[in-house]
Amino acid sequence: MRLTNKEKKEPSLAFGGQAVMEGVMMRSKDHMVVCVRQPNNEIVTKTEELHSLSKKYSFLKLPFLRGILALFETLYSGIKGIYFSANAAFGDEEEESLNPKEIAVVVAVAICLSILLFSVTPFFLTSLLNFGGGVVFNIVEGIVRLSFLLAYLAAVSLVGDFKRIFQYHGAEHTAINAYEAGVELNVENARKYSRFNARCGTSFLLIVTLISILFFSLMPSADYLVRLSYRVVLIPVISAVSYELLKLSDKYRNSTIMRVLVAPGLALQHLTTRQPDDDMIEVAIKAVKEVERLQKGM
User: Fold this and answer.
1) Phi, psi dihedral angles at 48 (to 5 degrees)
2) DSSP characters for 212-277?
């Protein structure tokens, strides 16, 4: 879920954030803020300046390339935020943080597991059904992949710690919606706003599934191993296209057609968000205010 600047008519999708353990991480263009509720009820805040590769290599700002870069940089900062929040939630925020190499390993492992679970396994299972290699096969594979995603989200939502993370996810959306509405940021005002947001990363996952069906249907017929390799090699391309579509949905978010198109992504957020309590909203608001302060150089 991204943070936007309410003063801009077309906010940038380069801004982002996520729920972490007992807290919320917010990212602006140049800063990352993690706010975590500790066992003593205090809110501890970690801030960090971001150094995107796009600042050094301007060609990475080009359409499609920026989507691939955003994917990896979001994963990288997300792991850092989760690690800090896990320590802070247990009162150990001073513990030594992960170094870049360790974070890179964690990101690589996470990507490999995701590919295995949501790309390779659905392809293998669909192959057992003997649908051939045409459009029907790709549609069925997409349905299987989406079913895996829904089953995974439904399963983790039953785990106690994840229930609270999903509540913080809802708090993040609530605070962002209040911020974008231009109201004074406090718990009472923010509580009036929805826990759903059309530009949430959950919608991105749904777009990826739909785009993958289209891409694999356009690829030339080939043997089993070549078709399987498509599912791995084309992941960056599919992610890049999905990112651009998500950006486009933000640009035209007020149109009736776009509202209809983003509706499935909002529906999916019934699994990835829960109604937050006031303490959670307070943490999310603090993260929003702090990242805004840093971005404005206040």
Assistant:
1) -150, 140
2) HHHHHHHSPP--HHHHHHHHHHTHHHHHHHHHHHHHHHHHTTTSHHHHHHHHHHHHHHHHH-----
Mean pLDDT of 72-94: 82
Q: Kindly state whether residue 86 falls inside one of the protein's structural domains.
A: yes
Contacts of 129 (CB under 8 A, 6+ apart): 140
Residue 2 placed within a domain: no
Q: Is 1 inside a domain boundary?
A: no
Residue whose token pair is 């045409």: 134
Residues 221-272 have pLDDT tens digits of 778 888 889 888 898 899 899 888 888 887 887 788 888 888 888 888 998 9
Q: Across the chain, what does the average pLDDT equal?
A: 84
Q: Are 17 and 31 in contact (CB under 8 A)?
A: no
- Whether 4 is in a domain gets the answer no
Give the residue numbers spanning the domain of 89: 16-295
Q: What is the total count of domains within the chain?
A: 1
| Stated pTM of the model | 0.83
Q: What is the maximum span of the chain, computed from C-alpha positions, in angstroms?
A: 61
Assess contact for 99 and 42: CB atoms under 8 A. Answer: no
